[in-house]
Amino acid sequence: MTTRVIVTIVAWNGLRYLKELLPSMDAQTFRDFQLIIIDNGSTDGTLEWLRANHSRITLLRNTRNIGFGPGHNQGIRYALDHWKEAPLADRYILTLNQDSILAPAFLDRLVAEAEAHPEAASFGGKLLRAFGENLHDEVMRETVKSDMIDTTGLTAHRNRTFTERGAGEMDTGQYNEAGEVFGLCAAACLYRVSALVEAKYKEEYYDHDFFAYKEDVDLAWRLRLLGWGARYVPGAVGYHYRGAYGKEQMGWRERLKNRRGKAQERNFVSTRNHWNLLMKNELFVNVFLALPFIAFSEIRRILFVCLFEPRTIPAFFQAIGRVPTMARKRRSIMRRKRVTAIDLRKWFI
Predict the structure, then answer these.
(1) pLDDT at residue 254 greater than cutoff 70
(2) 295 strand-pairing partners
(3) In this structure, what DSSP letter does residue 29 have?
(4) I need a labelling partner for 113 at 20 to 30 A (CA). Which of 18, 133, 255, 309 fits?
(5) pLDDT, tens digit (0-9, with 9 covering 90-100), for 19-78
(6) What is the span of the domain harbouring residue 76?
(7) Is residue 246 part of a domain?
(8) Are residues 152 and 268 in the same domain?
(9) Torsion angle of alpha carbons 339, 341, 346, 349, nearest 10°?
(10) How many domains does the chain contain in total?
(11) Domain co-membership, 61 together with 178
């Protein structure tokens, strides 16, 4: 396979979104890519529609929803099997959410940035929010591509929470400068394949145990530990529906309302994955230095769940039950670590 970019899309009952995403891929000015759709047991006619309208797309079919990360892992393994002897340093994987839409130059701009920065592993653009009006009505349906920012990269905080930079702000050019960020959102992220191979644990690129949510933060942190960079490219513009619309800067009342607006399953998995994320990637000296911030944040998290979200309480026990698994993955990461605690500390603002 000589194709330089493999685009992996994990689909789950997202036919209404694919009907917008795939035309945006057809319109890309960069043409040296192949599309792989990993379907996680959709029951909304996705398979039939793809076979009738996009027969050239490589389709991998799962009989059930195995999750976002494991689905993309399937696509990455498929790409590597077909690249075989190709030089992986100039091969790339673009992971996409099914509910994203890309401007025509999106892939072109990211590949150009990747070629100019061989020290970086991941590249992402300016994602703005898309809103659907009459989303389920084929006749009256209309997509609003707004100027509200969805993400311009991941921000890591001293209390070890992570937010989408600029989320909820109106785009007035405040993020028009390209540069380094902690990591990128997996909704539309270009990865250098050689970096993914270096960062993997066994056959996992995204952590298989995360299922969904925060798997991109975990991979970003892992790549940072291995000495790889991450770059934001403002000229690569895309749009993302995102299930729960929140802001990066919110007071506690707004955060409470935003949290309650999310699905229970999402809150459960996100809470569990947050603790597993820290178990795997945090450096002990950095924990010690930031302990007051981390402790306050985690005590507040536990109290909130106990008072307002009791169905999420088992997530803490599930995270603790995974300590042996996370410890094995941690040892694998730390054996290969190429940066110091100081190098990592500068990202936690």
Answers:
(1) no
(2) none
(3) S
(4) 18
(5) 999 999 999 999 999 999 999 999 999 999 999 999 889 999 999 999 999 999 999 999
(6) 5-240
(7) no
(8) no
(9) 130
(10) 2
(11) yes
Clarify whether residues 194 and 283 are in a common domain. no
**131 and 267 belong to one structural domain:** no
Q: Is 247 within a domain? A: no
**Whether residue 174 sits in one domain with residue 301:** no
Tokens of 138: 């084929």
**Within 10 A of 312 (CB to CB), how many other CB atoms are there?**
21
186 located within any domain: yes
**Measured between alpha carbons, how far is residue 86 from residues 35, 78, 122 in Å?**
18, 14, 19
Q: What is the dihedral of CA 194, 197, 198, 201, to 10 degrees?
A: 170
137-151, 207-221, 248-262: segment of lowest average pLDDT: 248-262
Kindly report the average pLDDT of the chain as a whole number: 92
Q: What are the tens digits of pLDDT across the range 162-207?
A: 999 999 999 999 999 999 999 999 999 999 999 999 999 999 999 9
Best CA proximity match to 221, nearest among 168, 171, 274: 274
Parallel/antiparallel/unpaired status of strands 5-11 and 33-40? parallel
Q: Helices 264-281 & 215-225, crossing angle to 10 degrees?
A: 10
Q: Do 221 and 263 belong together in one domain?
A: no
For residue 134, report the phi and psi dihedrals to the nearest 5 degrees: 55, 50
Beta-bridge partners for 231: 123, 180
CA 175, 180, 186, 190: dihedral to nearest 10 degrees?
Answer: 110
63 with 112, same domain: the answer is: yes
- pLDDT of 260 higher than 60: no
Give the pLDDT of residue 311.
95
Rounded Cα–Cα distance for residues 69 and 74 (Å): 9
Mean per-residue pLDDT, 305-323:
96
Residue 137 has a pLDDT of 57
